[in-house]
Input
Amino acid sequence: MKKRFIVASLIVVALTPFGWAASNLNLSKSNINRYSAVYPTELVTAAKIQNMLAAINQLDPADDAKLKQWLTVNFKQYGIDGSRVKKVVILPPSAKVKERTVILLTDPTDEARAIALAVKPSNSSNSNRAD
Output
């Protein structure tokens, strides 16, 4: 009986670090797929964009095409007039863009300016308004 207890204790002690590592990986997973947004202020409020980004983070679409499809279907749910959105651009993370960035354009000629806003580091928020 004592021998079984010692063996069981050794197994628990040996496996404990692996359990900690697994939970640490799972707890930090929310930081892996973060999204930000660039959008015109007259299109949507910051609070609604934050709600939309939270939903995208939970959804974590596999590719840009699925994300664009999800966005067009769900614009109305987040108070966005889909008829005003003329172009959606998804920027992947890179050395210049820390997070995957959703850019909503009401005027496609503003794309270069919006990308410049996405590349500029943001200090406090994970969304940038294009005024």
Notes: The longest strand covers residues 35-40. Residues 33-130 form one domain. The radius of gyration is 21 Å. The helical segments are 2-28, 46-59, 64-74, 111-119.
